[in-house]
Design brief:
The protein is an alpha/beta fold and about 280 residues long. It folds into two domains: about 200 residues, Rossmann fold; about 70 residues, Hypothetical Protein Ta0175, Chain: A, domain 2 (Alpha-Beta Complex). It contains twelve helices and 13 strands. It starts with a strand and ends with a helix. It comes from Paenibacillus planticolens.
């Protein structure tokens, strides 16, 4: 079985210093930047996932760049999964090394299916202004990441921009203080589908909190999303019942996700079924 999971706000979380102190040994430091803690993971989830990795394939699937993924030492260096998807699907990591063939293939797909990045820049410049955009980055020559003051986003203009970009082959996602603008060809589903071909015909259980994770959850055989974030807010507005969410929100939603993965794995594990029926 494959467990393909988003990282930020799904498996790892930032926490205020006083909250982190209060939680104590219930959480582990997942990431440091210049010696300062950037994110944490539930200790229970980490140890259970570490054990599960002996029986299934864990694939971190993140919109972070290769460099930003490497920074999450608890996962990239401690758990050391054999496969990872970064850059929202634009890069695949095989045994710690990026796969250049996959990256070249994605760049070709982008060229074939989306308008050129300079046209996107011109459209963005009409809406994204310095009075609410703190910084902008073009990540891994694939997509845009903007850090913003969310409460100042001009909602109507942003919605119109998103609709226009959608017609031109680009997707918009607002996650907390970040606005991502990504070519449709750069997505988590296609990268995981490629890895599934390498690994073998396995069932996939997936988790994620944002609209950029939606395409992965739709592709998976099983999915569970945390009870917070962009995907949960969309479900509250639309009420489609398309996704199952955890009871818990925040960092300990991860415990429910790992429990769910364990249950699905047990269901498809012949050795467990034999033990259960005996």
């Amino acid at each position: 079985m494959i467990f393909a999971s988003d990282l930020d706000q799904t498996l790892i979380y930032s926490q205020p210093e006083d909250r982190a102190t209060e939680l104590g040994s219930r959480i582990l430091i997942a990431e440091l930047i210049d010696g300062k803690v950037r994110s944490y993971m539930s200790a229970n989830s980490y140890h259970r996932l570490q054990s599960l990795m002996k029986e299934l394939t864990f694939i971190p699937v993140t919109t972070r760049t290769l460099k930003q993924y490497d920074r999450i030492h608890l996962i990239s260096q401690m758990l050391q999964p054999a496969y990872a998807v970064t850059s929202n699907g634009g890069n695949i990591v095989l045994n710690g090394q990026p796969d250049p063939e996959w990256h070249r293939a994605i760049l070709a797909r982008v060229q074939d299916s989306s308008v050129h990045v300079e046209e996107v820049r011109k459209l963005m410049d009409q809406v994204l202004h310095s009075d609410w955009v703190i910084s902008s980055t073009y990540c891994d020559d694939l997509f845009f990441s903007h850090i913003v003051e969310r409460d100042k986003i001009p909602q109507l203009e942003m919605r119109e921009l998103s609709e226009e970009l959608q017609r031109l082959g680009w997707t918009t996602s607002i996650q907390g203080r970040k606005v991502y603008i990504v070519p449709k060809a750069v997505n988590k589903r296609d990268a995981v589908a490629h890895l599934k071909q390498i690994i073998g015909d396995e069932k996939i259980v997936a988790s994620g909190d944002s609209l950029l994770d939606q395409i992965l959850l739709d592709f998976a055989d099983y999915s569970l999303a945390p009870r917070h974030g962009e995907l949960f807010r969309q479900e509250q507005l639309q009420g489609t019942g398309a996704y199952t969410f955890t009871e818990e929100s925040g960092i300990f939603a991860t415990d429910e996700i790992i429990e769910y993965v364990q249950a699905v794995h047990n269901k498809h594990n012949p050795a467990f079924r034999i033990k259960e029926s005996s």
